[in-house]
Every structure is written in C-alpha cells, then in structure tokens.
Amino acid sequence: MARVPLTPIGDPKERLVDDRTFREQRQEHAALEHQLSARRAEVHDGWGETYRERVHAKGKLTARERIDRLKDDDSPVHEVGTFANYGEAFGKLTSPAAGVVTAFVRIHGRWCMVIANDNTVASGAWWPRTPEKIERAQTMALRLRLPTLYLVDCSGLFLPEQSRSFSGPTGAGHIFKMNSLLSAEGVPQIAGVFGDCIAGGGYMPIISDRVYMTEQAYMVIAGAALIKGAKSQKITSLDIGGPEVHVHHSGCADVRVPDDDTLLFALRREVRRLPSSAVEFYRGERGAIEPRFPTVELTGIVPRDHRQAYPAEQVLARLTDQSLFWEVMPDVGEEMICGVAPFAGLYAGVIINRQGLVGDPEHRERQRPGGILYRAGIAKISAFSRACNDDGLPLIWLQDISGFDIGQEAEAQGLLAYGSSLIYTNSTNACPMFTVLLRKASGAGYYAMAGMPYDPIVQLSTPISRLSVMEGRTLAIATYNTKLDDDFQILTTDPDERAKIEAGMAGVEARIEEDMDPFVAARQLDTDEIVRLDELRARLCALVEMSYQATGHRRIKNPRIWSLHDLSVLTQGGRR
Fold this sequence. Notes:
Layout (H helix, E strand, L loop, with lengths): L6 E2 L10 H26 L4 H9 L5 H8 L6 E4 L8 E2 L2 E2 L5 E8 L2 E8 L12 H15 L3 E7 L19 H11 L4 E9 L2 H4 L6 E5 L9 H8 L5 H5 L1 H8 L4 E3 L2 H14 L5 H5 L14 H4 L10 H5 L7 E4 L8 E8 L2 E8 L3 E3 L7 E3 L2 E2 L1 H17 L3 E7 L1 E2 L3 H5 L2 H14 L4 E10 H6 L9 E4 L4 E3 L3 H8 L15 H21 L2 H6 L5 E2 L5 H14 L13 H9 L5
Parallel strand pairs: 6-7, 7-8, 8-9, 9-10, 13-17, 16-18, 17-19, 19-20, 19-21, 20-22
Antiparallel strand pairs: 1-11, 2-5, 3-4, 5-6, 11-12, 12-13, 14-15
C-alpha cells in the first residue's frame, strides 16, 4: 500500500462553539499571551539599553543582533530556553535567559543550532544553569545532526556563583564533552569569537571545525588581570591570546576578520559550503499548505480551564497541512488518537489525548473520562510509537493528560505492565520525538507520553500548561485525608479546628497551583520553551523539517514499506 490514506478532518468554529464562548475563551488566553510577550521582551532586553550602548560603543553587536544578521531574511528564530533563570536573583543581579541565547536558525536553507553568549549580561558570563542550557542545545543539535554555530563573547564563569555552575555532571566542563561528542558524530561545528573568550569560554570554540576571530577577540585560559595578579606581568589579553597569536602562531583559530559583520558573513559562507538539506527530497511534490482552519482559532476552542473538555480532532485540524490526517487504529483505545499527518509537506506521527467522555470496552453501558490512560489506549500508542520508530518517522506527542487509570480493576488488568511496555518503547526509540504540553501534564501519564524525563528532543509548553504529579485540590485532600469523611468534607465540628484545616488545605492547593506555572518549569529547564497556541504549528513544522534535513544517520522509509500499513490492516481485521 503506497498511498497514505489522509482524509480531511475538522469543522468550522461555528459548529464547535458559540460566538460568546469563543470570544470569552480567547480573552482568557489573551491575558496569558500578553504576559508571555511582556516576559519575552523583558528577557530579550538583557541588562538594558545602557549595556547595549556599551557593546555598540566597542563597535560590536549584541547576541540577538548577530543572530538576526546571521539568519535567512525570511526565516523565524525559534529560541529554546528563553526563560532559564527567569525570576531568580543572584544577590542583587538577574541573568536573563541565563546569559546565553540558544535558537534554531535557518541559514542558507539549512536549520542550524546557534549558541550565542549575551554580551549585555555580565559580558556573556556563565551563570547557574547556563552550562545546562548550552548542553541541552548541543544535545538537540546532536540528535538532529544540525550544524552548530557558537557566537562566543564570554567572560567565563560568573565567579560569585561558581559553586553552582562549575562542578557536577552537568557543570561547565560538560560543554566540552558535548563539543567532543558532536565532533565524533560528524556534526559540523563552526565558531565565531567576537570578544572575551576566557577560561571555559576559551575552550568552547577549540574543537569546532572552523574558528574565526575578530580583531577585538581573544581566547585565553587566564586573562590579563589574573596574570598580572599571579605573575606581576603587565600585558593585555589581546597580547596573550588575540588573533595574532592564535591564527598565526598557535593554530587554535583559522581566520582573522576585522569586525562582527565580516565574521557573520563568513559564518554564513561556511554553512553554505555544507551538504544541502534533504528536506526537498523527502517532501517530493508535496507542498507546505496551511490548515483549512486558522491556527489562531485554537485559543477559542481549547478552554483555559483544565476541567472543561474540547474536541482533540479540532486541534489537529488547525495544526496539520490542509487539515489532513490518517487515523491509525481508530477502533481501539478511544481515549487516544494516533495517526500520521503532513507538516510542511513532510510526514510525522501524532499522538493526542481525547478529552470529554469516551466509551468503556469493559462495560459497554458506561462511559468514562478521557485524558486518562486505560489499557487499550496504552497498548495502542505503544504499538504506534514502535511503528513510527521502525519507519523512521518523527513523532509528536500532544499531551493533555490527568494520568493513568487507577483502582482495583486497573491493577487487575495489569496497567503497570502495559505502562512499562510503553515506557520501554519511548525510552529506546531512535526516531526524533517532540512533546507538547497542551494543558494538563500530570503524574505518570506525563512520563508515559514522552515527558522530559524520557528525553524528547524538544519539549514545548503553552501558557495554559499545568505540569505536576497531581492537581492542588487532589493533593490537599490526600494531605488531610485523615481529617475528612468519605465525601471529602471536614470531620470536626470545632470551629477553630475547621478553620485551621481549611486554611491548611487552601495553602497546599495554592502552593501547588503556583508550582504548576509553566514559567516555573521553564526557569528550571524542566521544559524547553513556552509558545502560544497560534505559534505551535510553525514550531512543529520547523522541528519536522529538522528531522528530515540530515541524511544517512537514520532510516526514513518511503511510505510503500511503512510498518504502519501492516498495523492498520491487522487492527481492522484485514478490511481495507
């Protein structure tokens, strides 16, 4: 079966929700989207205009100005890790984006990973979580085989906080191991040194395949100030490790150029020399066509309130090319939807939780809530995940999940074993996996659907994401269970004792609600980026393109020999 049986899905919004509800739901999302935009602007501002002026006074560009000149004119910049360290103070100082910009950037039609020290924040120093953020970006590049560009302008570790960024398995030194692993796997690395490049910053570019330096740049193990203190020598950092030394004597750099603009031109030229992207080969005659229903409608269809249901198919209809989808195994595991869809003309597997009430195959007279993993759904997505891995398809997980089914019947059905099979599958998959936390991401369900601990290449959150073991109200009930009756009402009739219990339960619920804020996860690097719902399609299209860009490192089957066709026939009893 060569044909991929894509069919149109979705309905106009007028059939899904009345105008008043649609408008009210969009207004609720708008407040969160405004907050997201304001916080992005705050992070992008670095340490502010004064520090940008200092950079410009040296004849240099800021990190984001460099990226803007490096990218293709018509290409977006997809940052990851924007909110690392957001809202956290180090003494009286903050470190917007942990002092480094990491982003997917298209250069001469090829997606690249760009890692750029923010020279407006402590001269590009490394703060707590800066190494982890850089290493996360390097890992993304390694697994997608993306050319990696380092825009180095780094004054080394931020020494007052060195104990939190120097040692440990993800400390600053691990960056250089990642440099080595990228090199060992043949992933191109190109470095541009624009200014300070001290200590660890000096090591970072060296393993790169090509190293450029501007006339203002230097790479040193120890700068002039340290040498003056240790050896009483009066010498500048340029004298110690400038381009004259490293291009013409040590060989640690390849080319010297006069300024930032020339260096950025040279980096673009180096990327152009690399093998071209394989995307057009795999795309064939298929084009990237917008969905039939606008992506901006998602905020009017997906309620902010996690207790309200919505039709998951309508989300897919606003994300996929032409709103096309091939649902696989539709007759089993109704709580889960899985299938294949085109994104930017390229095929990807998609798994999403169905919301609302679904059928119960064990008790056909009953219904049960969606957004939960039951036995058939677990088996279904596990088999689908394995098939996508076998066929080489990138796999997108769209989470809105409360967790696994619980209770005596669930245990008797062996949900622990079925869940273990799914976890094993996702832990050993070699195909690219990308996870989106649409709304709820709770308990072991978050793990099972390729949450961050199961190593998706990228995990995205939305402004309405809620990441936690359990909801605040549920945890409050569990915490005070001995003081509640079977209906979860407070047992005691003593007014003072009741008030104390009510206050305690409210405090637990409020703390958990605060912890579920997606900015908390993003600050801790527990999620890679927060994106608006109407930005989601563009992000997914870019990630799918990256999955097809490199050739030769994994098998991407043509549709004629997909395992998915066999799986579809077998689960339909041979009827096609």
